[in-house]
């Protein structure tokens, strides 16, 4: 069933080129949360901690494990390539079959890494400088559970009103923006859950962080239980650093 999403990704914010004083983040030493791994933007200007069970990357429709488990599914009891005909199933044939399987696995890994790198490069072109996913596999048509950092720049300094306006359009209805204090300074936090046209619930949590002429949005989205993102968003936001 076709799904409708009300959010998008902006390339550059064209609103509110404020001439007021700059709102700048505070330089704070990076502190990795327990169990997390560090993720950096390609230019090393932004860092954050990726929680356990999450990783930098994009979701793929079918993993290597899925493909491997499907091999030989038309019959037999495994995914090994068939033995050569003639009745000889000795060590030589078994070794050849294993070698073929290993080569296929290596090619699949290489192809998957290449596809993921290309997808991350396309996201970067849209301003998404860090993108993370969890281990869950979305059903067809479902938006993958993810969080990412979007960087937007404009000609003048960002103020709080323009920062809020830039982000609240990513929600179905305007959410309440609450100021929160992070180690690097203040941010706006927004959260809402709404129903999609097919009845699925969609949850988004956003943190909006002005830094002079740049605006950073950390967005967490899921069609799973809201707790999938609401249990990690604070930890991730508090680990966020502008270097």
Commentary on this structure:
A hairpin with a 5-residue loop joins strand 7 and strand 8 (201-211). The radius of gyration is 23 Å and the shape is globular. The protein is of the alpha+beta class. It has a 7-stranded antiparallel β-sheet. The protein has helices at residues 64-70, 91-125, 160-168, 227-230, 233-239, and strands spanning 37-40, 46-50, 54-56, 128-134, 146-153, 178-182, 185-195, 201-211, 214-222, 241-242. The chain has a domain at 37-62 and 125-242: Protein Transport Mog1p, Chain A. The model is unreliable at 1-16 and 61-80 (pLDDT under 50). Helices cover 26% and strands 27% of the residues. The protein is built from 5 helices and 10 strands; from the N terminus they run βββααββαββββααβ.
Strand/helix succession: EEEHHEEHEEEEHHE
Distance between the termini: 43 Å
Oligomer state of the chains in this structure: single chain
Helix content: 25-40%
Please give the structural blueprint.
Elements: E1 37-40, E2 46-50, E3 54-56, H1 64-70, H2 91-125, E4 128-134, E5 146-153, H3 160-168, E6 178-182, E7 185-195, E8 201-211, E9 214-222, H4 227-230, H5 233-239, E10 241-242
Antiparallel strand pairs: 1-2, 2-10, 3-4, 4-5, 5-9, 6-7, 7-8, 8-9
What would a concise description of this structure say?
By secondary structure, this protein is of the alpha+beta class.
